[in-house]
Specification:
Layout lengths: L15 E5 L27 E4 L4 E8 L2 E9 L6 H4 L2 E7 L7 E4 H4 L15 E2 L5 E4 L3 E3 L2 E8 L5 E4 L1 E7 L9 E9 L8 E7 L3 E11 L11 E5 L8 E2 L3 H4 L9 E2 L3 E8 L7 E8 L5 E3 L2 E6 L7 H6 L11 H10 L3 E5 L6 E4 L3 E10 L12 H5 L6 H6 L1
Parallel strand pairs: 6-13
Antiparallel strand pairs: 1-12, 2-11, 3-10, 4-8, 4-9, 4-12, 5-6, 5-10, 7-8, 13-25, 14-22, 15-20, 15-21, 15-25, 16-17, 16-22, 18-19, 19-20, 23-24
């Protein structure tokens, strides 16, 4: 049995395997590895060189029907979080003027905040933090066009990439096309859920997300629930989890780990403050996709819980472990938090907090007539993501 994701490794097929690189920009048969440089080197043109600031370059323009099987990009030399957030990948399907994929480079491949680190899943990965991988299958019937924009003030000296695909696949217009979209809200207002995706107009399948949280104040931030509002849900969602770490199939907090479909691939904490953190985590719905017929909205609730140290430092604990509600309210007010909210069965008081959230949502849907919402400007994408001194010391 075969599938677009796991093709048979031993059965013959009429599909044609092809690959686009800078040395073979058309993916033509028998045209790879040609020295197109100065003629003095067998490796004549392995990369795109000197992409000017503000320029957009074409990575591939493939006639279908076909299926993108793998995208590899070498992490640019001299990368910084600000630069990786400035390189924008876009993918267009079947002659649409609007991209179905629009994301900063490193966020698309699985790590938030413009960071890189080693991790690998069947669908996304960064071996050694240097090779960016995507294995999501991407069907197209007529055309696949990929571009890269250098939305930075610096020349991008060398850009290495490879797009592996097949031709001759049986593709229909009823098949969903791959979508990925970046969002950031910095800060996310107190009392509001962070929205990862809000799409409507045709059936689709939600297949995963990469989420980044820049912690802006003390305490555990991840008590909020992941919510899926499906096909007309309004006040309440059809699917709701019990906390951020629970959405990762873990429990009782979040620490670095790597698994096939879930994990925390970046987690750094200031050793002095103990709460100044950058967290990046992923959840791939390969075995439990979220299906919708007309619309889907995906949100992550902002909800915090105080630590024992925080309660003690603010004089909240009474003798015997009881809470002084007034002292707790005053402590929350110092940070602009709203609460406390009593959660039956839990020892702590929950509250609405505000942090810096970003995400990439991955899903399949028909190509829409209307464009995706614009991604944040470069200034908004890079604000506050520079490497901290303590972070450099820990790297």
């Amino acid at each position: 049995m075969t599938s677009p994701r796991f093709p048979s490794l031993f059965a013959f097929s009429k599909l044609q395997s092809r690959s686009v690189t800078q040395e073979n920009p058309t993916g033509g048969k028998g045209l790879a590895g040609k020295g197109r440089g100065n003629g003095n080197c067998r490796k004549g043109a392995p990369c795109i060189r000197n992409i000017p600031p503000g320029a957009t370059v074409l990575l591939c323009d493939i006639e279908g029907p076909g299926m993108v099987r793998h995208i590899w990009i070498g992490s640019p030399a001299g990368r910084t979080p600000e630069l990786l957030r400035s390189y924008v990948l876009r993918i267009y399907w079947d002659d649409s003027p609007h991209p179905s994929v629009e994301c900063p480079l490193s966020d698309f491949f699985g790590i938030a905040h413009g960071r890189t680190a080693h991790f690998m899943t069947p669908y996304l990965g960064m071996p050694e933090g240097r090779g960016f991988q995507c294995y999501f299958p991407m069907p197209f019937s007529r055309r696949c066009r990929m571009t890269l924009e250098n939305d930075s003030p610096e020349v991008l000296g060398m850009f290495f990439y490879q797009v592996d695909y097949t031709l001759g696949d049986e593709i229909t217009d009823a098949m969903g096309r791959f979508h990925a979209h970046f969002r950031r809200q910095n800060p996310c207002p107190v009392g509001e859920d962070y929205v990862l995706l809000d799409t409507k107009g045709s059936p689709g399948v939600f297949v995963g997300a990469v989420i980044g949280v820049n912690i802006l104040s003390p305490n555990w931030w991840g008590e909020g629930e992941m919510k899926f509002y499906i096909d007309g849900d309004t006040t309440y969602p059809t699917i709701s989890g019990t906390g951020a770490e629970d959405y990762l199939c873990s429990s009782w907090g979040m620490t670095p780990h790597e698994a096939l479909y879930t994990g925390v691939n970046y987690f750094q904490t200031d050793p002095e403050t103990k709460w100044d953190q950058l967290v990046s985590f992923y959840r791939i719905h390969a075995l439990d996709p979220i299906y919708f017929e007309s619309d889907l909205r995906v949100e992550l609730q902002q909800l915090g819980a105080p630590s024992a140290d925080f309660l003690g430092a603010h004089g909240v604990n009474k003798d015997g472990g009881a809470h002084d509600t007034k002292a707790l309210q005053e402590a929350y007010a110092r940070y602009g938090w709203v609460g406390p909210h009593v959660h039956p069965g839990m020892s702590d008081w929950l509250y609405d907090r505000s942090d810096d959230y970003c995400s990439v949502a991955y899903w399949y849907q028909k190509v829409m007539d209307t464009p995706l919402p614009p991604i944040p400007s470069r200034e908004e994408r890079i604000k506050g993501i520079a490497m901290r001194e303590w972070e450099k010391a820990l790297s």
